[in-house]
Design goal:
Elements (H helix, E strand, L loop, with lengths): L13 E8 L10 E3 L7 E3 H12 L2 H7 L7 E10 L3 E3 L3 E2 L15 E6 L3 E3 L3 E2 L18 E6 L20 E3 L4 E4 L4 E5 L3 E3 L11 E4 L2 E2 L4 H6 L9 E2 L4 E5 L3 E2 L25
Parallel strand pairs: 1-4, 2-3, 2-5, 4-7, 5-8, 6-9, 7-10, 8-11, 9-12, 10-13, 11-14, 12-15, 13-18, 14-19
Antiparallel strand pairs: 16-17
Protein backbone atom coordinates (compact mmCIF):
# COMPACT_ATOMS: atom_id res chain seq x y z
CA UNK A 1 0.00 0.00 0.00
CA UNK A 2 1.34 3.43 -0.95
CA UNK A 3 1.44 5.88 1.95
CA UNK A 4 -0.79 8.93 1.70
CA UNK A 5 1.31 11.82 0.42
CA UNK A 6 -0.11 14.41 2.77
CA UNK A 7 0.60 16.22 5.99
CA UNK A 8 -2.06 15.82 8.64
CA UNK A 9 -2.53 18.62 11.14
CA UNK A 10 -4.55 18.00 14.29
CA UNK A 11 -4.85 19.57 17.67
CA UNK A 12 -4.46 16.14 19.25
CA UNK A 13 -3.92 12.56 18.09
CA UNK A 14 -5.27 9.87 20.41
CA UNK A 15 -4.81 6.11 20.54
CA UNK A 16 -7.67 4.42 22.38
CA UNK A 17 -7.10 0.98 23.92
CA UNK A 18 -10.55 -0.28 24.87
CA UNK A 19 -11.70 -2.88 27.36
CA UNK A 20 -15.27 -4.19 27.10
CA UNK A 21 -17.33 -4.87 30.24
CA UNK A 22 -20.36 -7.04 29.52
CA UNK A 23 -20.64 -9.62 32.33
CA UNK A 24 -19.53 -9.94 35.94
CA UNK A 25 -17.41 -12.77 37.34
CA UNK A 26 -20.57 -14.85 37.88
CA UNK A 27 -21.40 -14.58 34.19
CA UNK A 28 -24.37 -12.25 34.75
CA UNK A 29 -24.94 -9.44 32.26
CA UNK A 30 -24.37 -5.95 33.61
CA UNK A 31 -27.47 -3.80 33.88
CA UNK A 32 -25.94 -0.45 34.69
CA UNK A 33 -23.32 1.76 36.26
CA UNK A 34 -23.18 2.82 39.91
CA UNK A 35 -20.87 4.79 42.19
CA UNK A 36 -18.30 3.02 44.35
CA UNK A 37 -17.39 -0.59 43.73
CA UNK A 38 -19.16 -3.13 41.55
CA UNK A 39 -22.07 -5.02 43.10
CA UNK A 40 -24.07 -7.78 41.44
CA UNK A 41 -25.02 -6.71 37.95
CA UNK A 42 -24.06 -3.08 38.56
CA UNK A 43 -20.59 -2.07 37.39
CA UNK A 44 -18.77 0.22 39.82
CA UNK A 45 -17.30 3.56 38.82
CA UNK A 46 -14.47 3.20 41.33
CA UNK A 47 -13.40 -0.14 39.86
CA UNK A 48 -13.35 1.31 36.35
CA UNK A 49 -11.22 4.26 37.42
CA UNK A 50 -8.78 1.99 39.25
CA UNK A 51 -8.38 -0.41 36.33
CA UNK A 52 -7.94 2.43 33.84
CA UNK A 53 -5.24 3.91 36.07
CA UNK A 54 -3.41 0.58 36.31
CA UNK A 55 -3.40 0.28 32.51
CA UNK A 56 -2.19 3.84 31.98
CA UNK A 57 0.76 3.23 34.32
CA UNK A 58 2.34 1.37 31.39
CA UNK A 59 1.58 4.03 28.76
CA UNK A 60 5.21 4.93 28.00
CA UNK A 61 6.17 1.32 27.33
CA UNK A 62 3.07 0.75 25.21
CA UNK A 63 3.52 3.83 23.07
CA UNK A 64 7.22 3.06 22.61
CA UNK A 65 6.40 -0.46 21.44
CA UNK A 66 3.92 0.97 18.92
CA UNK A 67 6.49 3.45 17.64
CA UNK A 68 4.21 6.34 18.61
CA UNK A 69 6.08 7.82 21.55
CA UNK A 70 5.96 11.59 21.32
CA UNK A 71 3.57 11.46 18.34
CA UNK A 72 0.24 10.57 19.96
CA UNK A 73 -1.42 10.25 23.35
CA UNK A 74 -2.73 7.01 24.81
CA UNK A 75 -6.21 6.80 26.33
CA UNK A 76 -7.79 3.95 28.27
CA UNK A 77 -11.12 3.12 26.66
CA UNK A 78 -13.93 1.79 28.85
CA UNK A 79 -16.94 0.25 27.14
CA UNK A 80 -19.99 -0.94 29.09
CA UNK A 81 -22.04 -3.13 26.80
CA UNK A 82 -25.45 -4.73 27.41
CA UNK A 83 -27.94 -6.49 25.15
CA UNK A 84 -30.88 -5.07 27.10
CA UNK A 85 -31.53 -1.83 28.99
CA UNK A 86 -28.73 -0.06 30.87
CA UNK A 87 -29.04 2.57 33.60
CA UNK A 88 -26.50 5.03 34.98
CA UNK A 89 -27.87 5.32 38.49
CA UNK A 90 -25.59 7.82 40.25
CA UNK A 91 -23.49 10.89 39.51
CA UNK A 92 -19.93 10.32 38.30
CA UNK A 93 -17.36 13.11 38.48
CA UNK A 94 -14.52 11.96 36.24
CA UNK A 95 -12.31 14.97 36.96
CA UNK A 96 -8.88 14.39 38.50
CA UNK A 97 -6.95 17.41 39.75
CA UNK A 98 -3.66 15.59 38.99
CA UNK A 99 -4.21 16.31 35.27
CA UNK A 100 -2.77 19.80 35.60
CA UNK A 101 0.80 18.76 36.57
CA UNK A 102 3.91 18.36 34.43
CA UNK A 103 3.06 14.67 33.90
CA UNK A 104 -0.75 14.87 33.85
CA UNK A 105 -3.02 11.93 34.55
CA UNK A 106 -4.80 11.21 31.26
CA UNK A 107 -8.60 11.04 31.13
CA UNK A 108 -10.26 7.99 29.64
CA UNK A 109 -12.80 7.41 26.89
CA UNK A 110 -16.19 6.25 28.22
CA UNK A 111 -18.57 4.33 25.97
CA UNK A 112 -21.95 2.94 27.11
CA UNK A 113 -23.84 0.84 24.52
CA UNK A 114 -27.28 -0.53 25.38
CA UNK A 115 -29.10 -2.86 23.02
CA UNK A 116 -32.32 -1.51 24.58
CA UNK A 117 -32.99 1.76 26.38
CA UNK A 118 -30.19 3.77 28.01
CA UNK A 119 -31.29 5.82 31.01
CA UNK A 120 -28.92 8.46 32.39
CA UNK A 121 -30.23 9.00 35.92
CA UNK A 122 -26.88 10.20 37.28
CA UNK A 123 -24.74 12.98 35.87
CA UNK A 124 -21.59 12.23 33.85
CA UNK A 125 -19.18 15.14 34.19
CA UNK A 126 -15.52 15.82 33.46
CA UNK A 127 -13.49 19.01 33.46
CA UNK A 128 -15.40 20.43 36.44
CA UNK A 129 -14.60 20.21 40.14
CA UNK A 130 -17.81 18.28 40.80
CA UNK A 131 -20.66 16.64 38.91
CA UNK A 132 -23.12 19.20 40.30
CA UNK A 133 -24.29 22.11 38.16
CA UNK A 134 -22.35 24.38 40.54
CA UNK A 135 -19.03 22.65 39.80
CA UNK A 136 -16.26 25.05 38.76
CA UNK A 137 -14.70 24.62 35.32
CA UNK A 138 -11.05 23.51 35.37
CA UNK A 139 -8.19 23.46 32.89
CA UNK A 140 -6.51 20.41 31.39
CA UNK A 141 -7.67 17.45 29.26
CA UNK A 142 -11.04 15.80 29.87
CA UNK A 143 -12.84 12.58 28.99
CA UNK A 144 -14.81 11.91 25.85
CA UNK A 145 -18.13 10.04 26.03
CA UNK A 146 -20.23 7.92 23.69
CA UNK A 147 -23.75 6.98 24.80
CA UNK A 148 -25.80 4.68 22.57
CA UNK A 149 -29.34 3.28 22.93
CA UNK A 150 -30.70 0.57 20.66
CA UNK A 151 -27.08 -0.22 19.78
CA UNK A 152 -26.10 -2.68 17.09
CA UNK A 153 -23.67 -4.61 19.26
CA UNK A 154 -22.44 -6.67 16.34
CA UNK A 155 -21.07 -3.60 14.56
CA UNK A 156 -17.51 -2.33 14.81
CA UNK A 157 -18.98 1.19 14.65
CA UNK A 158 -19.50 2.16 18.30
CA UNK A 159 -22.33 4.53 17.34
CA UNK A 160 -24.22 2.06 15.13
CA UNK A 161 -27.85 1.42 16.08
CA UNK A 162 -30.41 -1.18 15.07
CA UNK A 163 -32.84 -0.87 12.14
CA UNK A 164 -35.99 1.25 12.15
CA UNK A 165 -38.41 0.03 14.79
CA UNK A 166 -35.71 -0.91 17.31
CA UNK A 167 -36.88 0.08 20.82
CA UNK A 168 -33.97 2.18 21.98
CA UNK A 169 -34.39 5.58 23.65
CA UNK A 170 -31.54 7.53 25.24
CA UNK A 171 -32.94 9.58 28.13
CA UNK A 172 -31.10 12.11 30.29
CA UNK A 173 -33.18 12.63 33.42
CA UNK A 174 -34.31 16.07 34.55
CA UNK A 175 -31.68 17.85 36.63
CA UNK A 176 -28.86 15.61 35.33
CA UNK A 177 -25.87 16.55 33.16
CA UNK A 178 -23.74 14.92 30.52
CA UNK A 179 -20.82 17.27 29.98
CA UNK A 180 -17.11 17.58 29.35
CA UNK A 181 -14.68 20.40 28.60
CA UNK A 182 -11.81 19.43 26.27
CA UNK A 183 -13.35 16.08 25.28
CA UNK A 184 -16.18 15.23 22.90
CA UNK A 185 -19.68 13.82 23.42
CA UNK A 186 -21.49 11.60 20.92
CA UNK A 187 -25.08 10.45 21.48
CA UNK A 188 -26.97 7.97 19.31
CA UNK A 189 -30.38 6.33 19.65
CA UNK A 190 -32.28 3.94 17.42
CA UNK A 191 -35.44 5.84 18.35
CA UNK A 192 -35.46 9.02 20.50
CA UNK A 193 -32.88 11.13 22.33
CA UNK A 194 -34.78 12.68 25.26
CA UNK A 195 -33.65 15.53 27.51
CA UNK A 196 -36.31 15.03 30.15
CA UNK A 197 -37.96 18.07 31.79
CA UNK A 198 -37.23 18.89 35.41
CA UNK A 199 -39.73 19.25 38.21
CA UNK A 200 -39.93 20.05 41.89
CA UNK A 201 -36.49 20.27 43.52
CA UNK A 202 -34.80 19.74 40.12
CA UNK A 203 -36.59 22.18 37.78
CA UNK A 204 -33.82 22.09 35.16
CA UNK A 205 -34.22 19.70 32.24
CA UNK A 206 -31.57 17.13 31.37
CA UNK A 207 -28.57 18.87 29.80
CA UNK A 208 -25.81 17.79 27.41
CA UNK A 209 -22.98 20.13 26.48
CA UNK A 210 -19.28 20.52 25.69
CA UNK A 211 -17.99 23.52 27.61
CA UNK A 212 -14.44 23.97 26.31
CA UNK A 213 -11.51 25.03 28.50
CA UNK A 214 -11.02 28.37 30.25
CA UNK A 215 -9.77 30.86 27.64
CA UNK A 216 -7.01 33.40 28.10
CA UNK A 217 -8.25 36.74 26.77
CA UNK A 218 -5.96 39.28 25.17
CA UNK A 219 -5.61 42.84 26.55
CA UNK A 220 -7.49 44.08 23.48
CA UNK A 221 -10.41 41.77 24.20
CA UNK A 222 -10.48 42.81 27.83
CA UNK A 223 -10.50 46.47 26.83
CA UNK A 224 -13.79 46.03 24.99
CA UNK A 225 -15.60 45.25 28.21
CA UNK A 226 -13.73 45.39 31.55
CA UNK A 227 -16.06 42.84 33.15
CA UNK A 228 -15.72 40.29 30.35
CA UNK A 229 -13.18 38.12 32.22
CA UNK A 230 -15.73 37.37 34.94
CA UNK A 231 -18.00 35.68 32.38
CA UNK A 232 -15.65 32.72 31.94
CA UNK A 233 -15.14 32.49 28.18
CA UNK A 234 -13.85 29.13 26.91
CA UNK A 235 -12.20 27.62 23.84
CA UNK A 236 -10.57 24.35 22.79
CA UNK A 237 -13.65 22.20 23.35
CA UNK A 238 -14.39 18.95 21.56
CA UNK A 239 -17.45 18.26 19.46
CA UNK A 240 -21.03 17.40 20.33
CA UNK A 241 -22.87 15.06 17.95
CA UNK A 242 -26.44 13.78 18.40
CA UNK A 243 -28.06 11.16 16.16
CA UNK A 244 -31.68 10.00 16.61
CA UNK A 245 -33.55 7.48 14.49
CA UNK A 246 -36.78 9.36 15.19
CA UNK A 247 -36.83 12.50 17.39
CA UNK A 248 -34.67 14.65 19.64
CA UNK A 249 -37.00 15.72 22.44
CA UNK A 250 -36.45 18.63 24.80
CA UNK A 251 -38.35 21.29 26.70
CA UNK A 252 -39.05 24.50 24.77
CA UNK A 253 -36.40 27.23 25.27
CA UNK A 254 -37.30 30.13 27.53
CA UNK A 255 -34.31 32.38 26.76
CA UNK A 256 -33.13 34.39 23.78
CA UNK A 257 -29.44 34.25 22.81
CA UNK A 258 -29.00 37.79 24.14
CA UNK A 259 -29.78 36.49 27.64
CA UNK A 260 -26.54 34.53 27.77
CA UNK A 261 -24.37 35.54 24.77
CA UNK A 262 -22.46 38.72 25.56
CA UNK A 263 -21.71 40.94 22.56
CA UNK A 264 -19.83 44.21 22.65
CA UNK A 265 -18.43 46.75 20.19
CA UNK A 266 -16.58 50.05 20.21
CA UNK A 267 -17.25 53.20 18.19
CA UNK A 268 -14.76 54.04 15.46
CA UNK A 269 -13.57 57.54 14.46
CA UNK A 270 -16.47 58.05 12.04
CA UNK A 271 -19.10 57.39 14.67
CA UNK A 272 -19.78 53.88 13.41
CA UNK A 273 -19.52 50.69 15.36
CA UNK A 274 -16.77 48.17 14.61
Amino acid sequence: MTPVAATLTAGEILVEAARVYARNEAGEAYTGLRSGGSSGTMLGQRDLSTQAGEFMAHRDILMRSLGLEGQASLRAGIELRGAGDLTITQDWNLWNAARTGEDPVAPFMLTVRAGGHLRVQGSLSDGFTSAAATGVIASGPAASMRLVAGADLGSADLLAVGPAGTAGDLTVAGGKLVRTTAGSIELAAARDVVLAPGSGATPTQGLVYVAGQPATLSPEQLSLAPDIAALGFTDGGGRLAVHAGRDIQSAAPVQLPGNWLLHAAVADGDGGVG
